[in-house]
Amino acid sequence: MSAAPESPPRSWAEVDLAALRHNFRAARNLGHQQIMAVVKASAYGHGLEPIANTLDQEDLTFFGVANVGEARRLSEAGIQTPIYLLGGTFPAEREEVVARQWLPCLNTMEEAEHFDQLARARGSIVEAHITVDTGMGRGGFLPSDTPSALIAIRALPGLRVTGIGSHLPCADEDNAFTITQFNSFDTLIESLPEREKLTHVHLANSAGLLGYQSRTTTLARPGLMLYGVSPVTNADISLRPVMALKSRIAVIRDLPSGHGISYGRTFVTTRTTKVGTIGIGYGDGYPRVTTGQNPEIFVRGRRVPLLGRITMDQVMADLTDLPECSPGDEVELFGPNIPVEEVALRAGTIPWEIFTGITPRVERVYKG
User: Fold this and answer.
1) Measured in whole angstroms, how far is the alpha carbon of residue 238 from the centre of its chain?
2) What band does 3 get if pLDDT is binned at 50, 70 and 90?
3) Which terminus in the chain has less CB density within 10 A, N or C?
4) What is the model's pTM?
């Protein structure tokens, strides 16, 4: 008996690695700083290992991840670039951090002293950065406590402090606060004892890199812009979308005037309507809350509206003005023709959430 053929994916995300490399180089050339590529949350939904393997070949200083699970996946994938943990660690995680030589950020003296104890027990030294809380409120030393904390941590024999960083809470929303935050951070860095020992000084995320200047930073941490989206409007940079979310038309039917479409009959046809049913829904990560917000898709070179509520596995589109459409035709939900920012706006959210909400049943297909 011959093997059964394998069907093509019902819905998939095309990930353009050439666009990723383009965006990385654009970020690296902006301000001529070292780059920590932020690949947390499975590289913003694009696929952790393929994205990291691509960027590992570039002039990269660190990968930034959210937790030890992501760091472990990178290590086990053979990534050579040093791995930086962007957030605080649980006590039970720290021994693995020391053993695998990942770089933690230090938020408290308790954290620093525990890392020192673990490192000395292994006869090793942990390279680490200090985190300063300049307004995010999520972790780190307050600026007034940072000079004394730096002195105390430098005295711990199991630690080597090679960097210092902070986080921007509203670089894409509050220009005045962010300018003040940059100035306060720079002033703090300039006041630190032996600041020349801090090889990596970092503050800017994508919005910070695109919109602001620092006197002291040597490293930036772009995330969203690597994936082709600018978090600020009118940014003077050319970015290329990396992900395109796609599916196919499964069924095309002619429905009469007065016929309801989808759950709740929130849409009722007012004319004979050619309706295409497409094999993707909120179970794949396409946001249900776009219902009623005039979402559109791209098929056969044109935008067409979605009709009725987004369901778990399927959406319906008005194909009346595209009589040439056929079952099996490819559909773009977002990508080069339907910007992900547009989908996010209709969903009342942000591109970060749209990307990271694409579920595992959507196959990632890599090109370039």
Assistant:
1) 18
2) confident
3) N
4) 0.95
